[in-house]
Design goal:
This protein is α+β, with helices and mostly antiparallel strands. It is built from five helices and eight strands; from the N terminus they run H-E-E-H-H-E-E-H-E-E-E-E-H. The chain has a single domain (28-177), classed as Protein Transport Mog1p, Chain A (3-Layer(aba) Sandwich). It is 34% helix and 27% strand. Strands 1, 2, 3, 4, 5, 6, 7 and 8 form an eight-stranded antiparallel beta sheet that branches.
Amino acid sequence: MNKLLIAGLLIMALVACAKENGESVPKDVVDLLPADNEISGWTKSSALEIAENQTQLFALIDGAAETYVNDGFVKCAFQKYSGNISGAPIELELRIFDMDTTANADKVYHDLTTGSETPWTGDNPGEEARIDQSPLYAYNLDFWDDKFYVWITIAEHSDPALDIAKLFAFNISNAIRDTTSTE
């Protein structure tokens, strides 16, 4: 028991030193979620949903959870946002998964491909990104960056809607790559 207490105190001291030295501390999926109006005009429209174990993840997404679990799932946060596009209310759904390692994030990204996506290359967020334009009334966009896999869907199939989804993607990718501490 003493060894466990000492190990815990050592970890807390290392995190504190990293913060003081300006080094990055591990990011939490919740910290990566955009705040209300961080993307102008877009606010959270649902309760935050978090899963920190397999049981909770299966309760959130049932059968789809198996791929994430098999690929190293650690934690996820789901958040819905609402905003307006051309005067019409639109909903955007965001899911961020901590996959523990970059290899796991890359693996889940490739395991979840449907074949209908178009690679988003050049000026894209993350290490790899793609856009699925096949849904009739939505765009799906996903990418992986560091140890995170991010999935975004916007319930509107228009260029302005795609631009908003891309803005969310860049915002999250920048938050992942930000080395400054949020605490």
